[in-house]
Specification:
The chain has 365 residues and is α+β, with helices and mostly antiparallel strands. The protein is built from seven helices and 23 strands. α1 runs antiparallel to α6.
């Protein structure tokens, strides 16, 4: 029912007139120097209710280091059973222009045999950037949306994912990432998806507002000649981001998810004249053995006589024609009229592509 409803909605949307929609420059791309940076760290979560890593070697070694920093030296050869602690990986994103003292969210995930992080607290952990430098320090109590319980007989119940937690404002920024947006001679703007037509329209929109400022370097990058100085550039960048541009029509694509049977057809898909035949041959074999008794006083034996009935019929056999330049609505209507299942649709679309009728990129994921 849901699939049929989606097909109907797609057909209705396709036949409606679609005006050229203008989008803001900030929705089409971003400035080269304005980006976030990924941070990672290795830490320990304590305070768990017996759902930790136990004698996980990495956890034991890390706990020795933590206890040593706190002035507690474990005797050699002592291997503590740490059911209330878990080794975790911490991930976070450092926003552009983040300054020391600001706070960011962190995600904490187990890396060993811990069953749940519910009720745990993360010990102070440094977060490193790709250059190996420390940019933030994380610590705090975890908020875990999952739940996992088990019984002594081996039965288990798990709701969501209890081995991943989050700490809102759980890390404090300790160092800022240098940015050259305010003093470089040329500031670059990158399109999210390469498209020469869209890039040309963005360049024209910027040059219309600021003559001679923008020039195209490739299908993704636009070079902007701006005066130096953070205050001046910030104002120009804000104005440029709010300019309206009508992007080029997206490329014709048919995306097929072979695992779920989901098929997404872009509005630019067109078909050359073609005919599609769809149906299934059903062959049925019925066995009706008959018992045969010998005549009286014939000295015969009871036997079984085979009686086989074979029938064959073609179910759901259709031939559908598609005219030249068929649009998305006509494609959806034709495939829906065939009563094809998702697996059949995949085969039909692949056949149209091989026959040269489908003018689109076929992407199977």
């Amino acid at each position: 029912m849901i699939r049929k409803l989606l097909i109907v909605l797609a057909a209705i949307a396709a036949v409606m007139p679609v005006p050229a929609m203008a989008e803001r420059v900030r929705d089409l791309g971003q400035f080269h120097s304005v980006r976030s940076n990924q941070l990672t760290g290795y830490g320990i979560v304590v305070g768990l209710d017996g759902s930790g890593d136990d004698n996980f070697a990495y956890l034991t070694q890390a706990m020795r280091g933590v206890s040593g920093r706190l002035g507690l030296q474990l005797p050699p050869g002592v291997n503590p059973a740490l059911k209330n602690a878990a080794a975790v990986i911490i991930t976070a994103e450092l926003p552009a222009f983040a300054k020391p003292g600001q706070r960011i969210d962190v995600t904490v995930s187990t890396m060993g045999k811990a069953k749940s992080l519910r009720g745990g607290a993360l010990i102070m952990t440094p977060l490193y950037g790709a250059d190996g430098q420390v940019y933030a320090m994380a610590q705090g109590n975890l908020a875990v949306g999952g739940l996992g319980v088990s019984g002594q007989d081996g039965s288990k119940l798990t709701v969501n994912v209890p081995t991943v937690g989050r700490i809102a404002d759980g890390a404090t920024v300790e160092a800022a990432v240098a940015s050259n947006f305010d003093f470089s001679e040329v500031l670059r703007w990158n399109l999210f998806q390469a498209d020469f037509m869209t890039m040309t329209r963005v360049r024209d929109a910027i040059n219309a507002a600021y003559p001679g400022m923008a020039r195209i370097e490739d299908g993704v990058t636009l070079a902007l000649a701006m005066p130096t100085g953070a205050d001046t550039r910030a104002g120009l960048m804000a104005n440029i981001e709010m300019l309206d541009v009508s992007p080029a029509e997206r490329a014709a694509k048919v995306v097929i998810n072979s695992r779920t049977g989901t098929i997404v057809i872009s509005s630019a898909v067109r078909l050359a004249p073609a005919a599609i035949s769809h149906g299934s041959l059903v062959v049925r074999i019925d066995e009706n053995p008959q018992i045969v008794q010998p005549a009286p006083f014939a000295n015969g034996q009871t036997a079984i006589e085979d009686d086989t009935t074979i029938t064959a019929r073609q179910e759901g056999s259709y031939v559908t024609g598609i005219g030249p330049g068929a649009s998305l609505a006509e494609v959806v209507d034709a495939l829906n009229a065939l009563g094809a299942s998702p697996a059949d649709l995949v085969a039909i679309l692949e056949g149209l592509k091989q026959a040269g009728s489908l003018t689109a990129e076929l992407v199977i994921i």
